Amino acid sequence: MESVQAIKQRFGIIGNDPKLNRAVEKAIQVAPTDISVLVTGESGVGKESIPKIIHSLSHRKHGKYIAVNCGAIPEGTIDSELFGHEKGAFTGATQTRSGYFEVANGGTIFLDEVGELPLTTQVRLLRVLENGEFIKVGSSKVQKTDVRIVAATNVNMFEAIKKGKFREDLYYRLSTVEILLPPLRDRKADIHLLFRKFASDFATKYKMPTIRLTDDAVALLEKYHWSGNIRQLRNIAEQISVLEQDRIISSVTLHGYLPNIGSNLPAVISSDKKESDFSNEREILYKVLFDMKGDLNDLKKLTMELMQSGNMQQVQKDNEGLIRKIYREDDEKEVRFEEPVAPPEVLQIPSAPAQQKEEDKYHFAEEIEEEETLSLHDKELELIKKSLERHRGKRKAAAEELGISERTLYRKIKQYDL
């Protein structure tokens, strides 16, 4: 068995951090077996190196090694990519295609960003892990495959399981052995070492002298948070190598390449917290809107009964609980409806006969108001009687003719003792 240092040198892994060495050591130990491995760690820490180590040291090293970025494949096509499809299975499927699990038979598949898999694909993957069986899209034939699965994710899997985004049974099948790669900010002794390696590589690539850091620049480099981890460090080294004329880099120069430096705020804001906050706000907003909708419907119902009945005191009595609900009144307070009073300009006839049309309008309004106010009871009684006689006592037909509900008509009949 090769040593940890030999393996690191062979796969270009730089650093002597104990947590990094432990991760490489675990990869070496599980490689000869067919145990499923889950590599965890933040984005940019170099998780892709572990599956390569496992495959190269396993008995499958002469088989195929396929790396699949699950987060980069659209949800509608990922089943076809992984398991293949039959001709005509969907629009555009002009021929039968073999999926990665069929092609990699006898080898290793690395599922990067496995936490992004759709739930339907997770079910298919679980079946492969349990008995090596899969079915192509559009087929009913069960096929067998012998592959080793190494997965990686930067997602908090327990949070994903809690939210229903990842199957718990699949998680435990994938993570028979879990290998955690530490973030760069926890490997402070390795940061300058990595920077020097990147600076040397870019100097060779761009045919220019290697950049070097002053002591204060090294201190600044090690103090920085590095939310993008090794990927971000490499990017910074490349920028400085290309853009700076002076090959000795001070902390002042380096400061200009480090985003958000000096901020007391965390470099990474928890996406789970933000989603939770927005979810709570949405729930509150939906509740308020539903309450408003309910109040509006109750108010419309009450208004319709007032229009159809005309007896405000009776409506108030029949709907006292509804009225309190709408206006959120205390039990001690009494909600009252005032009898409608027409505006003064409608009841008063203009004394100046300057415009005959205006005078006629006000006279007409007064007559209508007087007639409705003084004889509403008689008119309503008369209309109900005539309608019932016309329809031979059939309340449903009479209610339809009067434009009121059958329930309201029944109450009127009872009220007027018809």
Describe this structure in words.
The chain has helices at residues 4-10, 18-30, 49-56, 78-83, 100-103, 119-131, 157-162, 168-174, 188-206, 215-223, 229-243, 251-255, 271-309, 312-318, 320-327, 344-347, 356-390, 395-402, 406-416; strands at 37-40, 65-69, 108-112, 133-135, 142-144, 148-153, 177-180, 212-213, 248-249. It is α/β, with parallel strands linked by helices. Strands 2-3-6-1-7 form a five-stranded parallel beta sheet, covered by helices on one side. α13 (271-309) packs across α15. It is elongated.
Oligomer description = single chain
- Could you name the ranges where pLDDT drops below 50 across 5 or more consecutive residues? 262-271, 329-355, 368-374
Q: What class do helices, strands and sheet pairing give? A: alpha/beta
Shape: elongated
What is the β-strand count?
A: 9
Spatial order of the strands in the main sheet?
2-3-6-1-7
Cα gyration radius (Å): 39 Å
Instruction: Give the termini distance in whole angstroms.
Output: 104 Å
How much of the sequence lies in strands comes to 5-15%
Our count of helices gives 19
Main pleated sheet: 5 strands, parallel
**SSE pattern:** HHEHEHHEHEEEHHEHEHHEHHHHHHHH
Helix content: 40-55%
Q: Give the overall average pLDDT.
A: 81
Question: What's the short story on this structure?
Answer:
By secondary structure, the chain is α/β, with parallel strands linked by helices.
